[in-house]
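Aim 2 progress update. The chain analyzed this quarter is reproduced below.
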Amino acid sequence: MKPKTATFIKFLHRLARSTNRKIFLILDNLQVHRAKVVRKWVDQHEKRIELFFLPSYCPELNPDEYLNNTVKAQLRNHPAPRTQDQLQDRLRSRMKSNQRRPHLVRNLFKHPHVQYAAA
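Predicted structure tokens:
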């Protein structure tokens, strides 16, 4: 199994284990999301998790894109990083900060194109 596929299955397992309710997960069309081994795992856990895929080439329907744009705007308020490590540190710091601000993440789902995911 490829490392990215193994990581994604580990994520799915942790996600399914985190609740007693069935999970409806909306994904983009990243190759790892559609891998045979992922489909097999999901089929084996169909009572716990179901996957739905966004149409191809529709970034406006993907809530991740709104978070990406928010993070980019937040990073623009700081001096440009001089190294790859600085960029990664700033990005990691910003994402951790945003995790502690659930209202910010909730607000991303108010956009008309992604309200479907907030229901």
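Residues 84-99 form the longest helix (16 residues). The beta strands are 23-27, 49-53. These observations will guide the mutagenesis experiments scheduled for the next reporting period.
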